[in-house]
Amino acid sequence: MGMKMGATRTLILLALGMIRAATARDFVHPGGLLTQPDIDRIKSSIAAKTEPYSRAWTAFNQRAPSTGRQPRPYAVLTDAGNSASVYAMQNDGHDTYALAVYWALTGNDAYAAAAVRMIMGWAAVLDAKSGTPVATMRTGIGINQMINAAELLRHANGGYAGYTASDIAATERMLRIAVYPILHSAWGNVPAACGPPGACQLPYGDGNWGTAALAGLMAGAVFLGDSAWFQEAVEVYRHGKCPSVNRYILADGVFTGETAESGRDQGHPQFAVGNLLQIAEMAWNQNLDLYGESDNLLLKGVEYLAKYGLGNTVPYTIFGTCHVTYPSISSQNRGVWYPIYELAWNHYHNRRGLAVPYAEQVRSKYAPEASVTDQFGFGTLLYTRSFSPQAPQSIARRYGGIPLSSPEASALSFTDAVGRTVILARSGASYAPDRSAAGPIFPLPATQSKAKPGRGNVGAAPQAAVIDSTRR
Are residues 236 and 271 in the same domain? Predict the structure, then answer.
């Protein structure tokens, strides 16, 4: 019995990538949503009382959780029936990241100790039986924030000594054994509990649900320094059947920028686009440009949302997610803002020198940016940077090219952490995954044709100016 259980565990570890060859990607640490240069810039700006950092720091302090904050872990994560467990994960993740950010910016170890307590509270409870595909979204939200906190504790300012090697190992086990199966079910093979393959795949990996799970996966990839996880996140971001940037945001003539959930309301698409922005920021910090995917399609989604939210006319055509189609744009939550616009504006305008007029109006009007539990925000504090346009990153980096010297390139194909065969194609000085050989987990998105227009151009609605008040 013991030998059988051991063999089963070994198979699980192999399937999830716990045992693997040396990775090909060199990871930057800290390299989640914040890098060490980011932290240094913010600290020096706070010390100098430079605006807008000073006002943003005051706002952050008003929302910072207490060092007495205690975790509220659950053994099973599910959003079916009773969703208390996934809301606890979401809320605990948010506060854990806030504690870690406060420590990184002040050096006050009481906040680091509280953040470690939060992480270890969950790591001690979650195991391989921890969740269902119904938990993809809020698990992704919570894990994205909690693991970004862990990344700071492990690496920022040389790392927090109180986050020990055994704590780090427990965090890694939680990610690989308990969390990965939940996140992966949003786009990959769903567990037997769902019935036939695909029976519950689309609703729980579709639209904003899938983007939240994907953000969690990217955060985990960076913390683990795991190339296979990272490449999986990149592939889903680009080519995923439902949660990819190329599926969620329409690229179709005058309708370009419309999102898959613009016909549902204005809160959910801001949340989803915010997740895509965070994924792109984490990838950027790992020297990969996902912001520029498909001619800056993400920027066009941001601008579409901001333009309509500000009361302007936008074009609309029949569109939707993988399982719901919306005939007309929705005015629900129009002018209610998610804290996503500072990150977008600071990248596309200040890093890239591009025009971002509607997002700029939003972030200028409502700075300093606040926070909600499913979008950490605080972007005025965390993402403000000087105007210093950069060229797009190199083609090899931008498209995830694998150097010719890497073991994967020499083999021309390799098996990733979840058992998929990835076929490589020559691209200049590197090889990259061959999309013409796409398998069933990452099918190529259907060509987006011009759909019959729904209501077409939608006129202005009465202005509303309540930032940050939407709760999911």
Answer: no
Task: Report which of 279, 269, 267 is spatially closest to residue 206, judged by C-alpha positions.
Answer: 269
Model pLDDT, residue 184: 87
- Structural domain boundaries enclosing 282: 250-400
DSSP state of 346: I
C-alpha 405/C-alpha 24 separation (Å) is 10
Q: Which residues of 95-133 are buried (b: 16+ CB within 10 A; e: fewer)?
A: bbbbbbbbbbbbeeeebbbbbbbbbbebbebbeeebbbb
Q: How confident is the model at residue 136, as a pLDDT?
A: 87
Q: Are 131 and 182 in contact (CB under 8 A)?
A: yes
Residue 371 lies in a domain: yes
Tell me the pLDDT tens digit for each residue of 405-430.
455 444 445 444 444 455 555 444 44
**127 phi/psi in degrees, rounded to 5:** -145, -165
pLDDT in tens, 376-398: 999 999 999 999 988 765 433 43
Number of domains in the chain: 3
8 Å CB contact between 452 and 317:
yes
Tell me the three state secondary structure of residue 216: helix
Verify cis geometry, omega within 30 degrees of 0, for the bond prior to 269.
Answer: no
Output the 3-class SS for 136-193: HHHHHHHHHHHHHHHHHHHHHHHCCCCCCHHHHHHHHHHHHHHHHHHHHCCCCCCCHH
Mean pLDDT value across the chain: 80
Q: What is the pLDDT of residue 425?
A: 52
Q: Is residue 235 part of a domain?
A: yes
| Number of residues written out for the chain | 472
Same domain assignment for residues 318 and 267: yes
Residue 297 structure tokens: 């399609």
Nearest to 190 by CA among 149, 227, 241, 125: 241
Name the nearest CA neighbour of 379 among 336, 338, 339: 339
Residues 315 and 429 in one domain: no
pLDDT at 437: 40
Q: Does residue 285 lie in a domain region?
A: yes
Q: Give strand pairing partners of 325.
A: 320
215 and 70 inside one domain: yes
Instruction: Read off the pLDDT band of 335 (50, 70, 90).
Output: very high
Q: Do 36 and 201 touch, CB atoms closer than 8 A?
A: no
Measured distance CA(115)–CA(96) in Å, rounded = 5
